[in-house]
């Protein structure tokens, strides 16, 4: 098995708070792994440490078998940050934002025919072809999310890391994204997803890793949703106190 992500004994402190307290997370080539856990359990921090946005205070990260410090091949990695807007304050069209995701592949030369086709293909995949020339400022929250996903797909990444890609996306669009992701997996992509609910992605998930208070408490088959959490359309974030058992909606 060929590890694409290896996080070993990862520790991170934000402010004065220990947020990752010795996490092991390995994602092998071609696997689809869901990172689950209550609000504040450290999921975003874990994925941000994988791409070098959060420095580790202990432990190590490797990407494609290389220590993060020596990893330079960012065109192989697509990242969708936790819900944010695709707009940077500078007016940009959907196409321009998605094309920015191709820069790591096109090495800042003029875009080739293949670059343009990849950008168009990514926009098509997320169902925004008719909005390609619109300003991202004119999009809804869920459409922004789809632009960010298209931006990550534009470089044809071998590894896709997505932080709650379904947040705020309606069921119909979730189905579109599930189909998009299935196509990526079929072409051999490796995927790490932070999720609250597996929803339409459930059939794609090979393994689930559950965090609690910065520690890994489960690494294995995805837990089955039961009760109201299994209902289609169930999509809410649970308020969690530190002493409450984890109820991700998947474990109960
Ligand atoms: N920049 C920061 N400075 C200080 N503490 C932070 C910072 N970012 C996150 N934290 C804290 O780290 C903990 C983990 O945050 P993180 O965003 O990784 O959780 P999460 O599991 O992704 O949560 P959610 O499901 O709400 O997105 C939280 O307690 C949070 O308050």
Automatic annotation (TrEMBL):
Would you indicate the residue range of the signal peptide?
none
UniProt key word Methyltransferase = no
Q: Which InterPro entries match?
A: AAA+_ATPase (IPR003593), ABC_transporter-like_ATP-bd (IPR003439), Metal_Ion_Import_ABC (IPR050153), P-loop_NTPase (IPR027417)
Q: Which UniProt keywords apply?
A: ATP-binding, Nucleotide-binding, Transport
One Pfam match:
ABC_tran
The UniProt record lists the keyword Aminoacyl-tRNA synthetase: no
Q: Which GO terms describe its molecular function?
A: ATP binding; ATP hydrolysis activity
Which segments constitute the ABC transporter domain?
Answer: 5-238
The protein here is known as: Metal ABC transporter ATP-binding protein
């Amino acid at each position: 098995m060929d590890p694409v992500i290896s996080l070993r004994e990862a520790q991170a402190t934000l402010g004065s708070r220990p947020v990752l307290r010795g996490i092991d997370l390995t994602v092998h080539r071609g696997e689809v792994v869901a990172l689950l856990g209550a609000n504040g359990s450290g999921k975003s921090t874990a994925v941000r440490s994988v791409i070098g946005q959060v420095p580790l205070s202990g432990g190590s990260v490797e990407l494609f078998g290389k220590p993060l410090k020596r990893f330079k091949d960012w065109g192989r990695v697509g990242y969708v940050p936790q819900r944010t807007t695709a707009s940077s304050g500078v007016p940009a069209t959907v196409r321009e934002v998605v094309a920015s995701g191709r820069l790591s592949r096109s090495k800042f030369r003029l875009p080739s025919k293949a670059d343009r086709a990849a950008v168009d293909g990514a926009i098509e995949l997320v169902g925004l072809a008719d909005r390609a020339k619109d300003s991202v400022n004119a999009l809804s929250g869920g459409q922004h999310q789809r632009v960010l996903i298209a931006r990550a797909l534009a470089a044809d990444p071998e590894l896709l890391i997505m932080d709650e890609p379904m947040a705020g996306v309606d069921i119909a669009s979730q189905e579109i994204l599930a189909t998009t992701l299935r196509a990526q997996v079929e072409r051999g992509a490796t995927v790490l997803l932070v999720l609250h609910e597996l929803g339409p992605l459930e059939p794609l998930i090979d393994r689930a890793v559950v965090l609690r208070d910065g520690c890994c408490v489960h690494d294995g088959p995805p837990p089955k949703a039961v009760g109201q959490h299994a209902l289609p359309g169930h999509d809410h974030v649970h308020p969690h106190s530190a002493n409450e058992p984890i109820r991700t909606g998947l474990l109960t």
